[in-house]
Specification:
The complex is a heterodimer of chains A (119) and B (233). By secondary structure, chain A is mostly helical. In chain A, 84% of the residues lie in helices and 0% in strands. Chain A is elongated. With 233 residues, chain B is α/β, with parallel strands linked by helices. Helix content of chain B is 45%, strand content 17%. Chain B has a seven-stranded mixed beta sheet with strand order 3-2-1-4-6-5-7, sandwiched between helices. The longest helix of chain B has 18 residues. Classes of the chains: A mainly alpha (119), B alpha/beta (233). At the A-B interface, helix 1 and helix 3 of A face strand 3, helix 3 and helix 9 of B.
Chain lengths: 119, 233
């Protein structure tokens, strides 16, 4: 069951990445070589996520979506992931603030220089 | 007499911007109730956009860095606030908007005391291709879904701003997605929003520029990201 959840959580991210790459190629932001390389990479990741678990379970004679009990390691892992999400979001907020300051600075500078030139 | 700033964000429009400014100045100079200045924001153009605009009488602000349509519009609005304009308008540099429509918008906005007035091509879509109509309706629907504001033409570049709107409106997006974000920010600031019909003009030049339809995917992606991330702010 855990593997099914893993698949459902990662599928949207992978599909969004593929859409992003296709859009970049159609908008001529990347060339054909880079496009094929990136698409291949994400298709491989998708294939590994979808295909690895049933194949592993078949090889080891488990049921297709069998899963072990949640271990202490899993609990620590999930906690660390959530802490990282919190930290990443704080960094993002700081980056947003800096971007806004930079944008304001650029506007003021452009106007000040142009006002001086237009006199 | 009210002071109005007509802001024209431009990137590599040297071929047509001169005639756009000339026609607009000719019409605006006849107005008795408004003193209308044209301010062109040159967003890092690599051609003669800046010199052509100056030659035809526009006040030109040259961006040091290319910032996108949203960034250029913000600079224009900052200029309007700094120089105490009573109202402002934005129009496209490539001839897609007529000076008459801009002037009608200014009068409509002034008469109805509307904070943000949007010129809607979809209230009178004659001249628009089916792809553009569907695309614009789609983006307007997404704007409504994400931000709760119903407008017929969320991507229109012809907009009129009251003094309140000039002072209160700011946005984060600098690409074309700023059109939808602006509507959202206006709603958040409880500014009044109205639309009026304008003509959609597509010349061989503007069609030849080739707006890539895939850009709509980028716009939608950025808007969804913006909406979700605001929850964490």
């Amino acid at each position: 069951m855990r593997y099914l959840i893993l698949l459902l959580l990662n599928l949207p991210i992978i599909l969004l990445s593929i859409l992003d790459i296709v859009t970049s190629y159609k908008m001529k932001k990347i060339n054909r070589g880079i496009f094929l390389g990136r698409i291949t990479l994400w298709v491989i990741i998708l294939a590994v996520i979808i295909g690895a678990i049933p194949i592993y379970n078949l090889i080891t004679d488990h049921k297709i979506f069998d899963s072990n009990e949640l271990s202490l390691f899993d609990i620590v892992e999930i906690t660390v992931i959530i802490a990282l999400i919190f930290y990443t979001n704080s960094l993002r907020v700081q980056i947003d603030k800096n971007e806004l300051r930079l944008q304001n600075l650029h506007e003021e500078l452009s106007i000040t220089i142009s006002d001086r030139d237009n006199k | 007499m009210k002071k109005v700033c007509v802001i024209i964000p431009a990137y590599n429009e040297g071929q047509v911007v001169g005639s756009v400014i000339k026609d607009a100045k000719k019409l605006f100079s006849k107005e008795k109730d408004y003193q209308i200045d044209i301010v062109l924001i040159n967003d890092g153009s690599k051609d003669n956009t800046s010199s052509e605009s100056r030659k035809n009488g526009a006040i030109v602000i040259d961006h040091i860095l290319n910032s996108g349509a949203g960034g250029a519009t913000l600079t224009g609005i900052r200029y309007a606030v700094k120089h105490n304009y009573d109202m402002a308008a934005t129009m496209d540099a490539d001839g897609q908007h007529t000076a008459e429509d801009v002037l009608n918008g200014i009068k409509f906005s002034d008469k109805t005391s509307t904070d943000l007035t949007i010129g809607s091509r979809l209230m009178n879509p004659e001249g628009m291709s089916r792809t553009k109509i569907i695309g614009n309706k789609g983006l307007s629907f997404i704007t409504f879904l994400l931000f709760g504001q119903n407008v017929t033409d969320s991507q229109s570049g012809l907009r009129i701003y009251s003094k309140n709107a000039l002072e209160d409106l700011r946005w984060k997006m600098t690409g074309y997605e700023f059109c939808s974000e602006m509507i959202w920010r206006a709603r958040q600031k409880k500014l009044s929003i109205k639309e009026y019909p304008i003509k959609a003009i597509y010349t061989d030049y503007s069609r030849g520029k080739g707006q890539n339809n895939w850009n709509a995917v980028n716009i939608i992606k950025q808007l969804i990201k913006l909406r979700i991330l605001e929850i964490f702010n």
